[in-house]
């Protein structure tokens, strides 16, 4: 019974991990489209464009790390339920390993070019 439960957790982890990856890619594309529209809007002043881009990232739980030379650097630590389920399927103890990994891994960093409206990361 326990092995069946762990197998189901592993399969669920893979499914959720694929879903999370797809959602992450879609959300990044939505951010890219919004920034491209804001940067291309000639009716806004540069300070207003910057404020809107910064508001976008703070509303999406990103931490603004640096801003220089027309580039904005933001970061966010992302918890993956799919990865947690996969690690849990290794006998339950793996979940603790994933939590340790989560707190030790560097946050996901994005660099936004404020002149062209492109996101690198």
Quick rundown:
By secondary structure, this protein is of the alpha+beta class. The chain has 4 helices and 4 strands, in the order ααββααββ.
Summarize the structure in words.
With 121 residues, the chain is of the alpha+beta class. The protein has one domain (2-120). Helices cover 60% and strands 17% of the residues. It has 4 helices and 4 strands, in the order H-H-E-E-H-H-E-E. It has helices spanning 2-40, 46-59, 81-88, 94-104; strands at residues 63-68, 71-76, 108-113, 118-120. The chain has a 4-stranded antiparallel sheet with strand order 1-2-3-4, with helices on one face. A hairpin with a 4-residue loop joins strand 3 and strand 4 (118-120). The protein is elongated and about 65 Å long. The chain starts with a helix and ends with a strand. 12% of the residues are buried. The model has no long low-confidence stretch (mean pLDDT 90).
Which labels suit this protein?
121 residues; alpha+beta; four-stranded antiparallel sheet; 4 strands; 60% helix; elongated
Summarize model confidence as the mean pLDDT.
90
Q: Give the strand line-up of the largest sheet.
A: 1-2-3-4
Biggest sheet, open or closed, and with what strands and sense?
4 strands, antiparallel
In whole angstroms, the N-to-C terminal distance is 43 Å
Structural class: alpha+beta
The tally of helices reads 4
Q: Give the SSE string.
A: HHEEHHEE
Can you tell me the residue ranges where pLDDT is under 50 for at least 5 consecutive residues? none
How many separate domains make up the residues? 1
Helix content: 55-70%
Total beta-strand segments: 4
Q: What shape does the CA trace take?
A: elongated
Strand content: 15-25%
Rg estimate, integer Å? 19 Å
């Amino acid at each position: 019974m326990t092995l069946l439960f762990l197998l189901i957790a592993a399969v669920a982890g893979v499914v959720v991990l694929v879903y999370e990856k797809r959602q992450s890619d879609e959300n990044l594309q939505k951010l890219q489209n919004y920034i491209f529209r804001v940067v291309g809007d000639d009716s806004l002043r540069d300070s207003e464009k910057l404020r809107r881009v910064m508001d976008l990232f703070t509303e999406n739980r990103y931490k603004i790390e640096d801003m220089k030379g027309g580039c904005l650097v933001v970061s966010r630590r992302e918890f993956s339920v799919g990865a947690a389920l996969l690690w849990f399927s290794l006998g339950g103890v793996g979940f603790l390993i994933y939590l340790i990994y989560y707190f030790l891994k560097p946050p996901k960093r994005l660099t936004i070019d404020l002149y062209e409206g492109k996101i690198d990361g």
